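Hi team,

As requested, here is the filled-out complex form for the zinc ion run. I kept the field names the same as last time so the parser does not choke. Let me know if anything looks off before we queue the next batch.

— J.
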Amino acid sequence: MRSDMGQFGAMEVFDMLSTHIARTVSFSRLTLASIVAAVLALAAGCTASTHAARPAAIGVASSAAAMEALIDRPGPVEVETVVGADWAVTRAGLINLDAPAAKAAHLTDGDEPIQIFVHVLRHPTRGTFLVDTGVTRQLVEDPSRAGVGWVVRKAMHVEKMRLGTDTAALLGREPPLAGVLLTHLHLDHVSGMRDVPRGTPIYSGPRETRDREFLYLFSRGTIDNQLEGQDDIQEWRFEADPSGRFAGVVDILGDGTIFAILVPGHTGGSTAYLVRTPKGPVLLTGDTCHTRWGWDHGVEPGLFSGDRPQNAISLSNLRALVARHPGIDVRLGHQR
Ligand SMILES: [Zn+2]
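And here is what came back:
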């Protein structure tokens, strides 16, 4: 025997309910209900970008153990860190001022001088890669024409940026790029993308375009504008690290020279890179740690991180890696 509701299809039930609601609830309450629904939807967040993404065509799932067995041996890749711009942003964004160590040091909010970096990786046979993208000249000189929305321009205080080496000038003296390795998809890391030739392979951690935050409501158009015309973002295919030291490790070229390390927290797919150079290993932390003070004291970023407790775990994991391998040259997200 069918239940009473079973006599009707879903659409009929919906129609009956809507009619009933329309008869019994005043218009103002309905309006209020839709506003509440919209606010709840916004609170759930907006995705970081609508740009297309797919699994990376390169990269071999590795492990912390395999990576650490290799990294103290000199490697063939040269790393040059270039300052795209000098800038200043709120310290409360860069450092969790509520952390006990920050309170003990009496750190207060205010402008913190930082840099926007781009790292050039030169592999002897596989080509030249960028880690993040630096800054396009137009971002500093005419941000609206660089596709940066009004809210973002005001929030990031573009007027405090002083251009260093813009990405077009940098790429003008390099061979064609073999790829761009992103640490994450925030604007100050894709702000040189408009100078990257179309068709260059672009890689990031998993689900960076689908990362969700309320504030992405204001930045998504700007991020989409930076990526416009570029190839799909290829996402590293991390697998669980057997040792649990990291969320995942990928050997990018399969030759043990450049590793991607999944360090979620700042964003869901935040990725650090470990590069084997002739002078020893170089660790590019991305924004898992923005500042020298944060690294030295083991304090995670503040308001700029989506998941601070998770960011703190990832930072602790990177510091433990460096403690096991003191020869690592650590290059932080935004300070020397
Ligand atoms: Zn950043």
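Two things worth flagging: The mean pLDDT is 90. The domain at 45-50+61-331 is CATH 3.60.15.10 (Metallo-beta-lactamase; Chain A).

Thanks,
J.
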